[in-house]
Amino acid sequence: MKKALSIVVAMLMVCCLGVSVFADFDLTSEIAADINSNLEVSIPEGVDVSNGVTFTLSVKGTSENDTIRVYLTQPGDTSRVTEVYYIEVVDGAFETTLDMPIDSTGAIQGTSDPTIIMFKGVDYATPLANTTFESFVIVSDAAPAETSEPETTSEPETTAEPETSAPAETGIALALVPMAIAAAAVVVSKRR
Fold it and tell me: Going along the chain, which residue ranges are E strands?
């Protein structure tokens, strides 16, 4: 009985670790309006964007563009730290998950960590046209402190202070449930 219980406790502890390893930052509600210019979305505080980390972004939506460019940078597009990724729009819709390795040391126009996600049209002269994000999720291995509001710009801007809102739901609280069950199982096994 104790062997079986110890196996269950070990499995629960692994589940506890797994819940908090990947936190989803769902920013969908913050950028649901139609966008007709470049879009700068602030990376939520608490997301690890340091050199060497891979930033994962899942997006779904509609657009009048054929292709959308996306990369990580600073406000005003002053320090790009990832390659430019192209999201193909098919029949007015797009859906993709991008894994973007961050290389702050090789950044174009600078060497700082990124603070925004930049979305643009297919080339430098083409802004986003009637683009709506139905789903916009950042997957991170760090727990968030808070989320931030996106900014839309027609032209590059100087550095702006991001606005903040309520903490993002990350599922960290769910990690406490298996840990409590495991602790209760240990107490029960000690009494028998």
Answer: 23-26, 38-42, 54-62, 67-73, 85-88, 93-101, 116-120, 132-140, 151-153
- Report yes or no on whether pTM surpasses 0.85: no
Contact yes or no for 87/70 (Cβ under 8 A) = yes
Provide the CATH number for the domain around residue 165. 2.60.120
pLDDT averaged over consecutive 10-residue blocks of the chain (192 residues)? 73 58 72 84 87 90 94 84 91 94 73 85 87 88 46 46 45 60 72 67
For residue 121 the two structure tokens come to 């049209």
Q: Is residue 154 part of a domain?
A: yes
Per-residue tokens: 143: 């727990």
- How many domains does the chain contain in total? 1
Q: How far is CA 188 from the centre of its chain?
A: 41
**Is 140 part of any domain?**
yes
- What range does the domain containing 142 cover? 22-170
| Cα distances (angstroms) measured from residue 187 to each of 1, 173, 181 | 14, 22, 10
Position 88 in a domain: yes
CA distance 110 to 7: 51
For residue 52, being part of any structural domain is answered with: yes
